[in-house]
Amino acid sequence: MLIPPSIVAVIYGWQANTSVGALFAAGFIPGFATGACLDDFIFTSRRGGTSSLSRPRQPGPRTGQAIRESLPALLMPVIILGGIFGGFFTATESAAVAVIYG
Questions:
Q1: Core-most of 12, 41, 45, 84, by most CB within 10 Å?
Q2: What is this structure's pTM?
């Protein structure tokens, strides 16, 4: 709900008559801080081996291949946010661009 483009932020901006772009900008730090905490939790649970998330480590070539295969999906937020903050399209138009890109 925090990381832009969030429909919750769009609806809140509409109801509160607040800038949606400002709400998206305000969601960056808390959203990424939450994501970093979740990443840390997963990393430590895998390292300790006490979680059901534990699994053997992948060798280097498979990890590199997985990163290459996931790169187009990872570029979607960059395209959306870059387009919004760059002034190329609005938040609503960014949804259409995301659908087309997807």
A1: 84
A2: 0.43
Below-50 pLDDT ranges, the chain: none
CA-to-CA distance for 44 and 101, rounded, in angstroms? Answer: 34
Q: Are residues 23 and 49 in the same domain?
A: yes
How many domains does the chain contain in total?
2
Map tokens 């998330």 to a residue: 53
Show the tokens assigned to 34. Answer: 């939450």
24 lies in the same domain as 2: yes
DSSP assignment string, 49-69? T-STT--PPPPHHHHHHHHHH
Same domain, 39 and 2: yes
Question: For position 7, what pLDDT does the model report?
Answer: 86
Determine the longest span between alpha carbons in the chain, in angstroms. 51
Domain that holds residue 64: 59-102
